[in-house]
Amino acid sequence: MTLALNARFATPAADAFVFDPDRAVEGRRDFVPRYGDDGWSLLALTQNPSQTDDIIRWRWFPEVFREPFRYASWTLINYPLPDRDVALRGAAMRSKLSVGRITRTVSDWSMFAQWLDERGIKQLSLVTAEDLSDCSRHLDKARGLARNTATSHLIALSRLHYYGRLYLPGSDRLVAPPWVEEGMDDYLPAASPLGENVTEPIAPATMGPLLVWALRFVEEYADDILAAFEEHRRLVEIAEGLKGPFKKGSGLRLVTYLEQLEAEGRPVPALIGDTKISTPGVFLAGLTGTPAVRVHQVMNYPRWKAYKVQNPGRCLLDTPITAKLGGEPWHGPFDFHDVPGILKHLVTACFIVLGYLTGMRTGEILALENGCCPDPQGPPEAARRHLIYARQFKVARDDDGNHRSAGVVREAPWVAVPQVVTAVRVLEQLGGHGLLFAIEVHEPLQPERRSGRSLAIATMSNRIESFIEWVNTHAQSRGRQAEAIPADPHGRVGTGRFRRTLAWHIARRPGGLVALAVQYGHMRTAVSAGYADPRELHQMGEKSQVACSLRGLDGLRRYYGLAA
Predict the structure, then answer these.
(1) What are the angstrom distances between the C-alpha of 85 and each of 81, 93, 99, 163, 423?
(2) What average pLDDT does range 327-333 have in this prediction?
(3) Is 316 helix (H, G, I), strand (E, B) or coil?
């Protein structure tokens, strides 16, 4: 059933599409939700590769408000707001919303519905302007929301009012909020006296070793990891090619291999758990050219089953370890089953290098494509600079001022220092085409609905924490505790704090605000100042130098006072 947008106040049928499938991004029409679904995914409406697949859940709403807000949300998705409402004083809104903002607005509505239900108000048309004033005070005093967050809630209620008088039945229309005529200032928490960006920069004690280890992975360890990954992929491909019916005698190669191990007293590759020793079917299949099903049959013979239990060993690859740490190989021989994990850490290291040494927003990094950083042409090598051509999303608007989910190519390319170029080249070796952080490459087991997308921001944030944990364990095992990454006093490192941290450093150099405005593309240096305001400079204990002067790992160690 297709979507009908003509019948005013007519609730769509339960099996009707929430939006016209023709609006869906290519290849995502099968994911357009139905009106009666318990949850609505709007991922099919956006071309932003890192857009989170946030689902609108109707259980968020009290039962009495569930259907009115379902219909209001349907109109929000399918109808633009007329220009006369957009232009009204205090509206501060656009006629169409991005997918992320639609989800945020419906979430704000759900909190408002819960607040009404707790006050015993069961119908939107019964809400008074005084109730809305009380709600604004509740956001400030009871919930303690930041000014920007509270502003989002008030704008959502303004939008509900405008949509109500145009598209909703009388019982579901919200009275005009008082801030529409009076302005929002008196209904919001007090503004910060400095107006700074509230994101905390990463503490130098954390950022220093984090960057050092990320650069080690990108510049020194990448060749070893990529070689191990190629060997891992080769063995998997061999095993995959052996699926299906197998011929008689197909296990002879495996038996010959096992007999040789037995004769030399060498261990059998195995999966060693806490209480169980299992057969690594894929590894032995690729190593011996034996179908995986046949591998398990042979390994269950009493002779080999007993030998496996008595002499279990790791599934080591022959890939050489060439990079050094303190004069010794940085890692032991790679285990077949550890390669995907160490590869994730390499990709994470690339993200950290890109995030800190360019200042891009997280979504812009995740939208980078193969070929985004071409080798420079023309002048002599010494005069050439690598540039990164990237899309930006925050300011991507069409001629009517509405959000463009595909983003726009940034007018001023990002300048890429050599370490950033190296990180891009590492990622290009993994993908070959498309997005550098393509979900198909870096999370191939994710659901099909994420196909063609990048890694999610939350996924990358979790990977950074895993990277830090791996580094600290590795440093401990190598007796290099002084190079561990300390916890940041403000919590998780996340993804967005790299941009803030770089701005914080750059702005402390002579002329830094100008350089920051150029690199970030801000129209006014006042915006850059918001990124770098020294609110707690004395508490951070920062030095006057800038970490990204980048004289190599030794320079970074000197800057951050790390042990060599």
Answers:
(1) 7, 9, 20, 10, 47
(2) 94
(3) strand
